[in-house]
Amino acid sequence: MAWVGLVAALAGTALQMKGQQEAGEAAQKQANFQADQQTQQAENTESAALAQANKIRKQGRINAGSARAALAASGVQADSGSGLEAQRQIAANSENDALASILTGKREADALRTSAQFTRRSGLAATQAAQTQQQGTAIAGVGQAAGGWQRAAGTSSL
Prior knowledge:
By secondary structure, the chain is mostly helical. It has helices at residues 2-73, 81-153. Helix 1 packs antiparallel against helix 2. The longest helix has 73 residues, at 81-153. 92% of the residues lie in helices and 0% in strands. The protein starts with a helix and ends in a 5-residue tail after the last helix. It is built from 2 helices and no strands. The protein has one domain (2-153). The model has no long low-confidence stretch (mean pLDDT 88).
C-alpha cells in the first residue's frame, strides 16, 4: 500500500505545479492588459496634445486678427512698424505655446510607453518566477515521495 502514498504525493505535486503555472500565466496576462492600457493612454495623450496645439494656433490667429482690426480702427498702419511687430509677436507666442503643448504631450506619452514596457517585463518576471517555483515544487515533491516510499518499504536507501 506504500504506492498509494507515493501516487498521492506525486499527484499533489503535479497539482501544485499546475497552480503555479496558471498563476504565472495570469500575472503575464494582467501585465499585458495593463501595458496595453498604458500604450493606449500614451496615444490618447499625444492626440490630445496635438488637438490642444491646434486650438492654441487657431486662437493665435484670432488674436492676431483682432489686434490687426484694433490697430486699423485706431488709425495705426497694421502692415508695418509696430502694428506688424505686434501681430508677429502674437503669432510667435501662439506657436511657442502650441509647441510647448506638443512637447508636454510627447513627454507624458513617452513616460507612459516606458511604464508599459516595465509592466510587460514585470509580467514576464512573474512567469519566470512561477516556472522556478514549479521546478522547486517538482524536486521537493519527488524527494518527499521517495522518502515516503522508503519509510513505507522500511529501507534506508533507494
